[in-house]
Amino acid sequence: MKEMIQLQIDRGEMLPLMEEFYTIQGEGYHKGTAAYFIRIGGCDVGCHWCDVKESWNANLHPPTETVNIVENAKKYSDTIVVTGGEPLMWDMTVLTERLKDKGLQVHIETSGAYKFTGTWDWVCLSPKKTKLPTEEAYEKADELKMIIYNKDDFRFAEEQAAKVNKDCILYLQPEWSKRDKVVPEIVDYVMANPKWKVSLQTHKYLNIP
């Protein structure tokens, strides 16, 4: 039985589902838009400031049949956001094919550290210093979301911006626990470097998931 489940996970027919919920996209280009979020467990990127550390251990999240995930998603929204954890640790081909078959727009939020699988309408790339994106991730990114925790993150953001495609939209977003300190720094930086835009975690200000 365990072998069969593992085979289905390897094929993307089952995924370690942490949670799924209907809410308002709070960040980046699509902020303010109603969307259904599918949060996949498992991540080894290991950001010390991660606000979803409970997603890291995939074994804590039950393998769930992809067909059931899709059936739930289609009830709520035309826009589906696949996030994590790091969803690209798993094969996203089956999930995205089934979502697309339902006529849904499918977005991903990823560090880009793993090989791309699946078909995506929007790619939010959020690189991390601990495990850098693949070249393919830079090419596919529709938006680059750089989390600013300290001053060195501005340097890292510029390094990453130099690698994405020319149409990629560039965002600087304060790490939530440091927002009072870094928001003024981000504002000043964007005003001096207007190729960047400010992204805020507006869902936290709205007190929604």
UniProtKB/TrEMBL annotation:
One of this protein's GO BP terms?
A: tRNA queuosine(34) biosynthetic process
Pathway membership: Purine metabolism; 7-cyano-7-deazaguanine biosynthesis
EC numbers, comma separated: 4.3.99.3
Mind telling me which residue stretches traverse the membrane in this protein?
A: none
- List residues binding [4Fe-4S] cluster: C43, C47, C50
Chain positions recorded as substrate binding sites: I24, Q25, G26, R39, T83, P209
User: Where along this sequence does the record place binding of S-adenosyl-L-methionine?
Assistant: W49, C50, D51, G85, S126, P127, K128
Q: Where is the Radical SAM core domain?
A: 30-209
For this chain's record, the cofactor binding note is:
Binds 1 S-adenosyl-L-methionine per subunit.
Q: Which InterPro entries match?
A: 7-CO-7-deazaguanine_synth-like, Aldolase_TIM, rSAM, rSAM_sf
The protein's enzyme class: lyase
**Record's keyword terms, sorted:** 4Fe-4S, Iron, Iron-sulfur, Lyase, Magnesium, Metal-binding, Queuosine biosynthesis, S-adenosyl-L-methionine
User: Highest taxon of the source?
Assistant: Bacteria
Entry's family note: Belongs to the radical SAM superfamily. 7-carboxy-7-deazaguanine synthase family.
| Known function | Catalyzes the complex heterocyclic radical-mediated conversion of 6-carboxy-5,6,7,8-tetrahydropterin (CPH4) to 7-carboxy-7-deazaguanine (CDG), a step common to the biosynthetic pathways of all 7-deazapurine-containing compounds.
Query: What is this protein called in UniProt?
Result: 7-carboxy-7-deazaguanine synthase
Question: What organism is the protein native to?
Answer: Flavivirga eckloniae
Q: What is the lineage of its organism?
A: Bacteria, Pseudomonadati, Bacteroidota, Flavobacteriia, Flavobacteriales
